[in-house]
Amino acid sequence: MTTIVSAPAVSDPAVSAPVTPTPVPSVPPAGAKPALVRYRPSGLDSRPEVNALLEGLGLGPLAPEGLTGFGGRNDNWAGTTTSGARVFVKTVARGTDGSSPELDRTLAFEKLVEQLPAGSPLRFPEHLGSDRPTAVSAYRLLPGARSGAEVALDGDFDVELCRQAGQAVATLHALVPDDVELDDGDAPLPPLSWLEAFPWSDLQDRSMAQIAAWKLVQDDAEAVAALRALRGREQAAPRTPAHCDLRFDQFILHEGVLYLCDWEEFRLADPARDVGAFVGEWLFQATYSVFAPTGDKDAPAPGFDLGHEEIVARGADGLRRHLPRIAAFWQGYTQLRTPDPELAARAVGFAGWHLYDRLIATAQAHATLSPVARAAAGIGRTLLLNPAGAVSMLRLDTPTGSPR
User: Are strands 76-80 and 251-254 parallel, antiparallel or unpaired?
Assistant: First the structure.
């Protein structure tokens, strides 16, 4: 077994894995917010590589008592080993040839962040080690951590946390990969070939709502042209180390500290991708709050039988409530990094794509597109067609920090 042990870098506790959907009940302390939802993971008898890695790292195997997992696309396990170490273990995809680009990108990130000083604004759970042949990695578990998606829905992803997120992303984009080889291939989304036709092999795995969501894009010549133009501007933009899959659930809040995790798509890319994705998350949140309950005390009661004008009015109200969070993110970002002159406009374009991407993802389990999906598509289209025109409205017009 080839084990790679990483020293004190800190990258990914618990947000990725399809597991048996049987929630494990837990009772948080009185007054405490609930931690990440946990599930009973797949059995370790069929995955001997998990304990093999942990034993190779000198941590001992996972104890069966209290073993849980977290949601996501990759198998994962969270628990305590026989030596008392609290760990999170996850797998990532492997190709038919045994390769794992996702693991390669993750390990490139771990190598690159060795240059970060203590106290860096970019924080990530500690990577304990990985096994390349089986594409299994172990991390230090952050007990009681909450997903950024849950924090946002509870109304707790406040201005200060958004500023911290901006500082973390700016720190990532400022890293210099002198002696670390990073993936420099194009990020996969949006897939330009899918703007014209949907591959039959992929069509069979999509829900009717997802197909309808893609048709919203494919049948809109102006949106297709705008996406192609965005990819063209991306090609001409300066590239930096970038997360390339930034969503609320890639953040983790632990004891008041914000961590960023899941580095499978990490690569050299346009930094506007990450900025736009964070902005897009708040725009999607503003749209979602029109139809579904959140913990935000200032949000109106959800409504499903609203007319077009009231939907627009509520969406605008949600946007006004979230604009200070977007502004705080941008302030934190520009405090630590000076963006290139066109980054804000490209970020707005990527925020527009992010709304389409979110509606496609959330349509996976549905037969028809929901009102929130169609509303998000409309906002995304507006941003794609005129990104420069929305820069000021989204508070990305001028740096508000003091770049070092």
Answer: unpaired
User: In whole angstroms, what is the distance from residue 265 CA to residue 188 CA?
Assistant: 9
The single-letter DSSP state of residue 46 is G
> Under a CB-based contact definition with an 8 Å cutoff, are residues 77 and 89 in contact?
yes
CA gap 240, 332 in Å, rounded: 18
* Residue 68 DSSP one-character state: B
Mean pLDDT over residues 367-375, rounded? Answer: 75
Q: Please compute the mean of the pLDDT values over residues 219-235 and round it to a whole number.
A: 95
Q: Which residues pair with 258 in a beta bridge?
A: 253
Are 101 and 183 within 8 A, CB to CB? yes
CA 100 to chain centre: 20
Mean pLDDT across the chain: 84
Among 68, 11, 81, 1, smallest CA distance to 36 is for 68
Cis peptide before 28 (omega within 30 of 0): no
How distant is the alpha carbon of residue 256 from its chain centre? 19
Report the C-alpha gap between 305 and 315 in whole angstroms: 15
pTM of the model: 0.85
Pairing of strands 251-254, 257-260: antiparallel
Taking Cα atoms as reference points, which of 132, 136, 121 lies closest to residue 87? 136
Q: What is the pLDDT of residues 45-98, one digit of tens each?
A: 889 999 999 999 999 999 999 898 887 778 899 999 999 999 999 999 999 899
Q: Residue 283 in 3-state DSSP?
A: helix
φ/ψ (deg, to 5) at 285:
-60, -40
Three-state DSSP state, 254: strand
Return the amino acid letter for 364.
Answer: Q
Distance CA 214, CA 370 (A): 14
Question: Which one-letter amino acid corresponds to residue 66?
Answer: G
Averaging pLDDT over each range in 114-118, 187-191, 329-333, which range is the top one?
329-333
Task: State the pLDDT at residue 301.
Answer: 53
Q: How many residues in the chain?
A: 404
Give 48: exposed, middle or buried? Use CB within 10 Å, 0-12, 13-18, 19+.
exposed
